[in-house]
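Reproducibility note. Readers wishing to regenerate the assembly model reported in the main text can use the exact inputs given here. Chain order matters: entities are listed in the order in which they were concatenated for prediction.
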Amino acid sequence: MLELKDICWSTPQGREVLSGISLSIRESGLIVMTGPNGGGKTTLAKIIAGIEKPDSGRILLDGEDITGLSVTERARRGISYAFQQPVRFKGLTVRDLLCLASGRELSETEICALLSKVGLCARDYEDRDVDASLSGGEIKRIEIATVLARGSRISIFDEPEAGIDLWSFSGLIEAFEEIRKSRRGIEIIISHQERILSVADRIIVIEDGRVKEDGGRDAVLSHLLSLSRCPSCPSRREEA
Amino acid sequence: MNADTAEILKIVSDWKDSFCGAYSIRENGKGIERRSTEHVHIEPKKDRPGLDITVDDGTKGETMYIPACVTHGGVDDLVYNDFHIGDGVDVTIVAGCGVHTENGESARHNGIHRFFIGNGSRVRYEEKHIGLGGNGRRSIDPVTEVILGHDSVMEMDSVQIRGVTSTHRTTRATVGDGSSFIVHERILTALDERAVTDFVVDMNGTGSSVDLVSRSVARDESHQSFHSVIRGNARCTGHSECDAIITEKGTVSATPQLDANDIDASLIHEAAIGRIAGEQLLKLCTLGLTEEEAEERIIQGFLR
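Running the prediction on these inputs yields the following structure tokens for the assembly.
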């Protein structure tokens, strides 16, 4: 179980981004965090993964206070994070990255299974360097595959749809639907996409550094749609 | 052969207590074992230390091994090996070198390798260098000269694995019509080691090409210097790429030079030098590696 208690975070310039966020995630399932750009979703995800440290507040994993733990220690306790803008490496292949992610050598069949989940053919990709030769959509899908390879209890995907073309997008939705069906652990997806929202078990709306709404998919989604505007529409923030 | 030679051979030339194919093993300045095959002839030079290696026309699929080992201090080994490669050949040449010192005395290997490659041939040349042992300067100063006929390919894959106190690597190539010279070089230096690498390639043939990729990692207080001159003297394409990672107080200097001496010469150079990107370390930490493990893994991949 993951618990966030009164998390606050400001930029080094002093702009408050998270203003006391408290959340409790008890059950496995697919949680979508949505809300306007700049509302604090990515910061919150990075704070869970340990990439950013909160100014105040506590993070508990199964009752253990992990607030002071490093990225590595949290990863080893079962937290995974798929970057919004995946990192490129000269000299590491797709296979290398997937093996590092899973913590062991993977067989051909296992690599193939992982890559096919994100719509890539192992034969074409496993030996390719994860460098500038891959397109934005390709590297994004490989990033998602590295998180799937870890099989973590808590997996965080930061805007998995960003930079993915329309064709890949359908595959992505299928991948998340499959994740949802298999219910291995807690999957947290940051997204603005209605189609991703529609496969969620729970939707959390983060706005102006606070939890604006939190509930089951149907209730939150119907409310969001009744506002008849995109939850990420910047005009809402201005009005607010 | 002594135990240090056997250890070096395992590292630099895939030695598994024997070689399959033609070979010559050099230990502390002397040839200790040598074998020719039906189409690969290895003969000692008469006028100076070294070998003449002749590969018959049409020889395909053979691998030959020409490693050199220096296993103690006080040795300054100089060897001239000439490779005469016929037409329509497709072979691999493995020529590693290891220098081992223990007692504080210096040791050096200086291998001057010349390749005369015929027409329509393909040669893969693998060169691994390592320094082992304790005290004592270990130097490896290879000189590689390549003359490519027409429609041939020379692929040079060279690695300095570790432990070489000082190296000056000189490569000269002349590329004929429709031929290609491909170089993939990786150098690791640490402590106070020094590495200088110096390429001059003349593309004289119409439709010739060169692709030179050099990757280096300079750790601790080591220094590396990369210098390349690519001359396009005909319709040709040249590409060079110099990427370096520096850690601690390591330093790297790169001076690529491109000379376009023909209106149809197309030449490109890319260079990037810097520390390991923080986000690369971070990504591997999110996969459960410590920062130190992440750095090792990134360097290992970079130099592969």
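We highlight two features of this model. Chain B has a mean pLDDT of 96. Chain B touches chain A through 22 residues (CB under 8 Å).
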